Amino acid sequence: VGISNNETLHSYDSDWGNYDFWVNWEGDDHHDDHGDHDEHDDNSDMSHQVAILYPDNSTALLDGSHDMLPEENATGWNLTETTMSMNDVALNYSVHEQYGHSVTGINGVDSPSDWSWWWSLYIWNETNSSWDLSDVGVDDVMIMQHTDHVAWAASNANLSMLPTPDHHDDHDEH
Q1: What are the strands, taking DSSP E only, across 4-157?
Q2: How does pLDDT run across 38-75, given as a tens digit for each residue?
Q3: Cβ atoms of residues 61 and 83 within 8 Å
Q4: Which residues on neighbouring strands pair with residue 105, listed in sequence order?
Q5: Which residues contact 141 (CB under 8 A, 6 or more apart)?
Q6: Long-range own/partner contacts, residues 56-59 (CB < 8 A, 24 or more apart)
Q7: Distance of alpha carbon 25 from the chain centroid
């Protein structure tokens, strides 16, 4: 498979093996023949972030890209997976037939089999400017409807250490 100058190869490790995929970093090219899609163009600069709080209370705040998400019905899983991949953060997860994706490890920090702690999903509450524990699974969190940002926190970590999203003045949706 040939690549253009604006594509890069990314590798992804999971419990089931290693995967390679191509990412086109100049995402505007696919919009050239879609001049009637003004709504999507307005969102292309929208900022989405994934916050991480590790068991030792260290943190990361990763920038995602709206253009990397599906145009419709983007989920918390889409945001998590694309943002981790864009930032070269390893992601371990399992998929349950009924409950969907479940994160089991981030950047080599895997939750233990004795369940002494686990990765918990939080969604950004724009109204209260706070993180709320999600009452649904990551596959049911709808980006731009429920939240613009998600966080993964070790259940035994100090939640006050969870970083808050950076706010950019590139949209006035809220």
Answers
A1: 7-14, 17-24, 47-53, 59-65, 91-96, 100-106, 109-110, 119-125, 130-133, 149-154
A2: 444 455 567 899 999 999 999 999 999 888 899 899 99
A3: no
A4: 92, 110
A5: 75, 76, 77, 121, 123, 134, 147, 150
A6: 56/157, 57/157, 57/158, 57/161, 59/161, 59/162, 59/163
A7: 17
d(CA 72, CA 84): 20
**How many C-beta atoms lie closer than 10 Å to residue 165's C-beta?**
21
Tokens of 155: 């259940």
Which amino acid type is present at position 136? V
Q: Mark residue 107 as left, alpha or beta (left: phi above 0; alpha: psi -120 to 50; beta: remaining).
A: left
Neighbours of 132 (CB within 10 A): 15
pLDDT digits (tens, 9 = 90+) for 112-136: 999 999 999 999 999 999 999 999 9
pTM: predicted TM-score of the whole model, two decimal places: 0.71
- The amino acid at residue 144 is M
